[in-house]
Amino acid sequence: MATRSAIGYALHSGKVRAVYCHWDGYPSHQLPILEEHYNTLAKVRALVKPGSMSSLRTEQMWTDYKRNPQPLYHHERGDGEPPRTVANPEKYWRDYGCEHLYVFRSGYGWQHYPL
After folding, report:
1. Torsion of CA 27, 4, 58, 63, to 10 degrees
2. What's phi and psi for 89, nearest 5 deg?
3. Is the dihedral of CA 83, 102, 33, 35 positive or negative?
4. Which listed site, 51, 76, 105, 108, has its alpha carbon 20 to 30 Å from 64?
5. What does DSSP assign to residue 109?
6. What does residue 30 show for φ and ψ, rounded to 5 degrees?
7. What is the SS3 assignment for 113?
8. CA dihedral defined by 55, 57, 62, 65, rounded to 10 degrees?
9. What tens digit of pLDDT does each residue of 59-111 get?
10. Residue 52 CB-density burial (10 A; 0-12 exposed, 13-18 middle, 19+ buried)
11. Measuring CA to CA, how many Å separate 37 from each of 12, 33, 43, 89, 109?
């Protein structure tokens, strides 16, 4: 069973821009990856820009091939959803079916919100 999450960053307006991630959204898995590989706003923006993903970090592809560990985006298989910018991200992503929300805030780093 999937542990769904949303991953994003806070905007100056107070809204959050985030994307859906289907697998392995629990904090003991996601937070170390986010903190190690996505520790600047520029890196987080680049992570979120392609849209929804199946996995935050995997060697798997939608084919039988392997690659260096990276996100597995839904657009790579021809579908997916763009990032969402919302004023109430906890409610929005909980209603979307996510169990965890990860928000990068400049000057603070990653914050986890159980939904």
Report:
1. 170
2. -65, -35
3. positive
4. 51
5. E
6. -70, -45
7. strand
8. -160
9. 999 988 899 999 999 999 999 999 999 999 999 999 999 999 999 999 999 99
10. buried
11. 23, 6, 8, 23, 12
72 token code pair: 């597995």
Other beta carbons within 10 angstroms of residue 10's beta carbon come to 19
DSSP string, 54-80: EEEEEEE-SSS-EEEEEEEEGGGGT--
Q: Is the pTM of this model over 0.85?
A: yes
Nearest to 102 by CA among 13, 29, 12: 29
Amino acid letter, 32? P
